[in-house]
């Protein structure tokens, strides 16, 4: 590991992110739109990561160790109100694949997340959303589920069906309250308004 101080900071920032998320879950406020407190944490972490990338490039495991590299990926994955940063970081990770160890699972999740926010089909089926009945389902897939599962297997992921079981169990632990149909409609309007505001969509 070349940058132990940076590694420590990335891990501490990830832990702070997750601690705030857990507190908001316990308070029952995390799933009521995008929490301003959560967004502030995400943006602060992303700005610091941008500074780190300017110094050392993508913090792969050769630079900061496996745990800190995964922490850096989580920070990018959560920087949802900064589209240009997410997209430029994905491009950088692809660019540095020949010279650094870039986790293919991290690439799959990040590319799918960007696709979802831009209303494009996802290639690896890593992103899940609520349907009109409040049931968790995969966001729009790029091709039949068998093809998506084949791609998932190639990067080391389990099947879409297995992942759905895992996420459903996780949500039951988090005790997320299901919105009514009217609340769901209002959430969708607010979601699209937010995407336009931060630059994911223009229409």
TrEMBL record:
It comes from the Bacteria. It holds the Pfam family DUF6624. InterPro entries: DUF6624. This is Uncharacterized protein. It comes from Spirosoma rhododendri.
